[in-house]
Fold:
Amino acid sequence: MARYIGPSCKLCRREGEKLFLKGSRCYTEKCAFERRGYSPGEHGQSKGGRRRGSSEYVQRLREKQKVRRLYGLLETQFANIFSEADRLKGITGENLLALLERRLDNVVYRLGFAPSRKSARQLVLHRHFTVDGQTVNIPSYLVRPGQVIKVREGSRNLDIIHQALKEQGRELALPYLRLDKARLEGQMLEVPKRAEIPTLCSEQLIVELYSK
Structure:
């Protein structure tokens, strides 16, 4: 399947805020957004690098693009998740974020086993994690409440995992996840509620975009 392989920092600059796509580098002075906080491209620095007076459509589109890039999804993947969220009972925007948070690659990242969602996706694809004792190599797998995510026995010495756990203090502890660093395992305790999800976005704008 196709995947964006261009510069991650360009995506942050395009959205006008840090998306923390490169893990620990985003917290240092090496972060490209800190050095060049304007939009990429030939006219990025003109008028502060931002479009003035954007239409409502552009605002909705940018919000969707921000969330899609934050979770590392393609257009079709994101649209499919939105369709599923729309079919569920409750508020569509909140359902959308809950489904995104339940993806296995995101859970691995949130637990602190990977420095970024991109790294988490690679670790999952390379079969470094089990869910309830079974190896799962599908990043889009939706973790259910009660399921245990564990580092496989043969992967317990991977430097990238241990380094990520050392730096995990930068992330807030989330009430819907439990982490046992000693056993290199975590568990989803419940379906995430909107108030508990630290993603800064206006999901209602995304709903409005797809409703047109």
About this structure: The chain has two domains: 8-43+53-99+199-211, 103-194. Residues 193 and 207 are 17 Å apart (CA to CA). The chain has a mean pLDDT of 86.
